[in-house]
Specification:
Largest sheet: 14 strands, antiparallel, barrel
Strand order of the largest sheet: 1-2-3-4-5-6-7-10-12-13-14-15-16-17
Helix content: under 10%
Radius of gyration: 20 Å
Structural class: mainly beta
Strand content: over 45%
Shape: globular
């Protein structure tokens, strides 16, 4: 009887809770695309390496049941250019969900091809290792749950990015294998395949003292969505952007600035006309 009740409780909990999860969706990405596309490297070629820290805070009213109150996301990323053609990366992400917490390790490699004065093609791949700590108590009153709460699964990301003059185009896939965590033969955690496409064109104005860049980010996971935005860069020091996430009617405001020669800091705020949650994103990057 116990062997029947356990899979049943897991199935019901997973069916009602798992598909309500939300993967990390960073808002500060126009010049930091590496999370979405592993082929995206250090945008400023004057630097050889970068260390970045990212935090995302979601605020939800206590009486709001349509949006799940997600814990704070933390993401740390390191990119290192071995030379003009090869780059490696290592990242860590803490991602919290309703009945499990996830610590993710990324290890990646990017091959860079350059020709002419302004053409560049990057091809990248990275392994993904998910350490899932499951809280069995949040799956119901299970008296005979499996021993241990840690479950590990792995996956693969792939992407390419092409740049020529002011044009940047990228296409990437996350979780290519759509791996899962199974308990008693049932999928408790399922990583959905994610497809991303990014497109932008940089217009240099006033003898390059200002830059105006329309940009787009398309993504497909369980459903699809589209960010369409405009970024204004001033004196290569400050970037101000606005984007709207179309299907959520979510307004995204971003401010980024270079501090000295090596530091970059940014903040983002968003709110939706449809949903009552809002998010604050913070970014700090050190490049050398």
């Amino acid at each position: 009887m116990k062997t029947f009740i356990l899979p049943l409780l897991i199935f019901v909990s997973a069916s009602t809770g798992l598909y309500a999860q939300n993967t990390l969706r960073p808002n500060i990405y126009f010049q930091n695309m590496h999370y979405y596309n592993t082929a995206s490297g250090i945008e400023d070629t004057a630097f050889r390496a970068s260390f970045g820290g990212y935090a995302k805070y979601k605020y939800v009213h206590s009486d709001n049941d349509e949006v799940w109150a997600k814990p704070v996301n933390l993401y740390f990323n390191h990119i290192y250019n071995l030379d003009s053609k090869n780059s490696i990366s290592a990242s860590y992400l803490y991602d919290g969900y309703s009945f499990y917490n996830r610590n993710i390790i990324y290890l990646g490699y990017t091959r860079m091809f350059r020709w002419g004065k302004s053409s560049r093609l990057n091809l990248g791949a990275r392994t993904v290792i998910n350490f899932n700590a499951i809280n069995w108590n949040k799956l119901g009153q299970i008296s005979d749950h499996p021993t241990g709460k840690l479950r590990v699964n792995a996956d693969l990301d792939f992407g390419f990015q092409y740049q020529v003059k002011g044009l940047t185009f990228g296409l990437s896939a996350k979780n290519l294998f759509a791996s899962s965590v199974k308990v008693n033969g049932l999928e408790l955690i399922k990583d959905q395949r994610e497809i991303y496409g990014n497109l932008s064109y940089n217009f240099k104005l006033f003898r390059q003292k200002a830059e105006l860049t329309p940009f787009f980010l398309f993504y497909r996971e369980r459903n699809f969505n589209l960010d369409t935005g405009l970024n204004l860069g001033l004196f290569q020091k400050v970037d101000i952007s606005y984007a709207i996430r179309i299907l959520e009617l979510r307004n995204i405001f971003v401010l980024c600035g270079n501090i000295g020669k090596h530091f970059q800091a940014g903040a983002s705020f968003d709110y939706s006309i449809i949903f009552s949650d809002y998010n604050m994103d913070l970014l700090v990057v050190y490049r050398f």
